[in-house]
Amino acid sequence: MPDGSNAGEALPVATNRLRLRVKTQSNTNPAELKTIITQIDASIASFLDGCSLTTNLDEAIRYAVLGGGKRLRPVLAWRAAEACGRAGACSIPAGIAVELIHAFSLVHDDLPAMDDDDLRRGRPTLHIQSGEAMAILAGDAMLTLAFEVIMDPSSALEESARPRLLGEVCAGTRAMIVGQVHDTLGGMPESLSEEEKLQLIHRNKTGALISAACRMGAICADADENQLASITEFSEAIGLQFQVVDDLLDAEGDAATVGKATGKDIEAGKLTYPSVLGIAGSRKVAADLHDRAMAAAQSLGPDGAGLVGLLEKLTNRQH
Amino acid sequence: MPDGSNAGEALPVATNRLRLRVKTQSNTNPAELKTIITQIDASIASFLDGCSLTTNLDEAIRYAVLGGGKRLRPVLAWRAAEACGRAGACSIPAGIAVELIHAFSLVHDDLPAMDDDDLRRGRPTLHIQSGEAMAILAGDAMLTLAFEVIMDPSSALEESARPRLLGEVCAGTRAMIVGQVHDTLGGMPESLSEEEKLQLIHRNKTGALISAACRMGAICADADENQLASITEFSEAIGLQFQVVDDLLDAEGDAATVGKATGKDIEAGKLTYPSVLGIAGSRKVAADLHDRAMAAAQSLGPDGAGLVGLLEKLTNRQH
Q: Smallest Cβ distance to B57: which of A57, A114, A178?
């Protein structure tokens, strides 16, 4: 099927050509994934138990962090730790930190002054549920707690890993905020092409935290330089691919609903991959990024099976 | 003059009785203080230069952090470092971090969904100047940068100090947010008396970051256990006293303007020291806290002169 011919259908973004190249076994065992997510959720809840926050703030944070969501970032950290030869559970503090950062960003992004979204994961957004003031403050608290979880002396993290993990949290969060500024308020160098602007937005807005999640998992597993380089390569490719696939799914959804959402994006002055590169061009970018991520995951050997499974899952997702 | 007799006048909160007790020399040299603040501001600007943020975000952060303000917290860190026997400049990274946290909290507190303030330090608040979205995002970025400055490898901080400083930033920030939640959204245990609620709010909302600033200065100076204990005692007393004096100045201002602001506080369900303890009772609390802070500063010997000077300045301020 040539690129672009199925613009109106919600089909997998990657082509079969790509999936045939898989050498490292792919681990997409749904029961295992569910067990991992259950363990991550229990760890988040247990960390929050230990924080002894005031009740209303605690409730708001649990609502935002634990209510739904796929825990993609903690699972990436888990699989990256496995790919570097350790049990995935060693990545749990890193996973909690990135999930807190991700959840804080959603809470603030949903605010009326930002995206003004009333629904998130099928439930009222936090500012609808608990009011804007609580949403602002709970977001601030979640960001702070992300640093606390890395420094928590009761976790099994090696001391030498903590400063590196904190550096990853900072870099990922800062880049995410810069990406959000670029996406909603502009301010990018005028000399950039539209495609360069898109890359700049998404490498920062979505990619940086996904990359941080993977690298943090590797750091928790005391990865050697080669392993960390492979994880970094994987994470940068999958981080950007994640957004391209998101844009494609949106655009394909739009086609079925007379381009309504696309119109909204254009109206808001937002750049998307399909609006800049077209459906075919965006598919090509997604496929190339998939190839890059796959090569990096395979370079980690059999232990990379979990990362390969996640890559397939993300590439072929329908929502 | 008996307590409470000058409710309508904006007079120093501490009585002369207290100031006569000063034994450690007080250093309130205004030229020296100005030099310190200039050095702190230059360091904040230099740190932001190194962050290479996107232009509009960078401008918003500089507007919020460097536009006015007394730099109380960085100066406290500086004087605490001096009191522990080192040059105050060793505290600069700590000072930048606490000032970023303080500035972020003001930006978010000023938002329409929070205190809805249009003016701050005689200029439009950041959301008036740059829009609400930028104010939310710039606040988030400032909070993140506070952690970055402590981890910045180019600073002269001793490696062993960094985790302790990060712990102080976390504890101070988390407590500040909890205090803001209590102050604006309630949620305190019903079993507490009004005075206990007031203490709980202000120890968290204002006191914790002031305390963190002092302790961080001491940590930068590699304080011994006794010094750190004295600085902690000083910081807890001055942190709470700061808010009591604030409330008194507000209440005294109110008396001159027919209690307008007091009415606003009561209407908003906000507790203040004068509304709970009366003017006389609040003065007594401020004086007792002054005594505690003074004793702690004096226990640090001649090097505590800068802290004593700050205590006098804060106790006797008119705004």
A: A178
* Averaged pLDDT score across all residues of chain A: 89
Taken in order of first residue, the domains within chain A and their CATH numbers are: 24-315 (1.10.600.10)
The pLDDT of B281-303, averaged and rounded, is 96
Among B121, B87, B99, B76, which Cα is nearest to B231's?
B76
The backbone torsions φ and ψ at residue B119, rounded to the nearest 5 degrees and listed phi first, read: -125, 145
What is the band of A264 on the pLDDT scale with cuts at 50, 70, 90? low
What are the phi and psi torsion angles at B120 (to 5°)?
-150, 125
Which candidate in A108, A174, A201 is best for mutational testing of the B interface (most B CBs within 10 A)? A174
Beta-carbon separation of A177 and B144 below 8 A:
yes
Residue A182, phi then psi, degrees to nearest 5:
-60, -45
Whether the predicted pLDDT of B174 surpasses 80: yes
Query: d(Cα B21, Cα A317) in Å, to the nearest integer?
Result: 73
Give the C-alpha separation, B7 to B262, whole Å. 13
Q: Is the pLDDT reported for residue A4 higher than 60? A: no
DSSP letters of B280-306?
Answer: HHHHHHHHHHHHHHHHHHHTTGGGGHH
Q: How many angstroms separate the first and last alpha carbons of chain B?
A: 21
Q: Which of A181, A201, A205, A209 to mutate to test the interface with B (most CBs of B within 10 A)?
A: A181
Cα(A236)–Cα(A146) distance, rounded to whole angstroms? 22
CA distances for A57 relative to B135, B143, B255, B309, angstroms: 22, 18, 35, 38
pLDDT of residue B149: 98
- Whole-number Å distance between alpha carbons of A66 and A85: 28
User: What is the DSSP secondary-structure string of B18-74?
Assistant: HHTT--SPP---HHHHHHHHHHHHHHHHHHHHHH---HHHHHHHHHHHHSS---HHH
ipTM at complex level: 0.90
